[in-house]
């Protein structure tokens, strides 16, 4: 299955990304029918693990949505396993330096471009398992920018060969800047930081994504030139919709 996120970007289209915190294939199957371009299994926060990630991939597989993963950390073991499981993109938290970005790229790429170990047990079912060059071209490498240190090193990070996109974590970035860990911020000073990140990345040919809480804020980010936006997560969307309907019923 081709990488639909890459195809959307090549066509100049923004990507609407869903986020899976619930560790169940049925939830992923339901979410995959909502019109998302991609769905990201979050095994950093939330309650997902490796086996629930595989179940989520199986649930979304028939619906053509691109599977991605946020890994717990910049560590080659788990990164290799999520790729072997079928992830088309790796979002990695707390990438703060050029050397950390280079390591992330290496973990996601087979030699000679990286150090990924060969063993695509599940992902090989859905493609030419021995075509390591195709795998290198297909996988998206997406470090997260979420600290002041990362901002200070941003130009070096986005110019690392093999970095396809960056992903802004607004809560951790807010904390690092001395603010409350909130999302969907509209303070002019924070929007200026977002714009600086975007322009710096895009000048290097790197796409930019951000986590949001609403479709409206995602739309605003697309209008600012962002290339990907995530809307909340499955558990948050379920709770939000449930609360709204309960409130209607109670009058």
From TrEMBL:
Record-annotated membrane-spanning stretches: none
Alphabetic keyword roster: Lyase, Metal-binding
Metal-binding among keywords: yes
Pfam families according to UniProt: HpcH_HpaI (PF03328)
Domain of life where this protein originates: Bacteria
UniProt domain HpcH/HpaI aldolase/citrate lyase: residue ranges: 26-228
Name assigned to this protein: HpcH/HpaI aldolase/citrate lyase family protein
Organism this protein belongs to: Falsiroseomonas tokyonensis
């Amino acid at each position: 299955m081709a990488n639909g996120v890459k195809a959307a970007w090549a066509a100049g289209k923004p990507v609407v990304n869903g986020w899976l915190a619930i560790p169940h294939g049925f939830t992923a199957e339901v979410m995959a029918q909502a019109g998302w371009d991609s769905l990201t299994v979050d095994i950093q926060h939330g309650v997902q693990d490796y086996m629930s990630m595989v179940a989520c991939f199986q649930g979304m597989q028939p619906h053509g949505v691109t599977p991605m993963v946020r890994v717990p950390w910049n560590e080659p073991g788990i990164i290799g396993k999520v790729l072997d499981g079928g992830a088309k993109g790796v979002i990695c938290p707390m990438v703060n330096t050029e050397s950390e970005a280079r390591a992330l790229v290496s973990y996601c790429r087979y030699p000679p471009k990286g150090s990924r170990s060969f063993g695509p047990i599940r992902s090989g079912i859905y493609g030419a398992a021995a075509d390591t060059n195709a795998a290198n071209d297909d996988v998206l490498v997406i470090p997260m920018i979420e600290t002041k240190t990362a901002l200070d090193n941003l130009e070096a990070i986005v110019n690392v060969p093999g970095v396809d996109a960056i992903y802004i974590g607004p809560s951790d970035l807010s904390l690092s800047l001395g603010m409350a860990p909130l999302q969907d911020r509209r303070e002019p000073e924070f929007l200026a930081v977002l714009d600086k990140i975007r322009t710096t990345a895009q000048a290097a040919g790197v796409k930019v994504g951000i986590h949001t809480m609403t479709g409206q804020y995602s739309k605003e980010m697309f209008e600012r030139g962002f290339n990907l936006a995530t809307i909340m997560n499955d558990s948050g969307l379920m709770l939000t919709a449930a609360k709204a309907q309960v409130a209607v019923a109670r009058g």
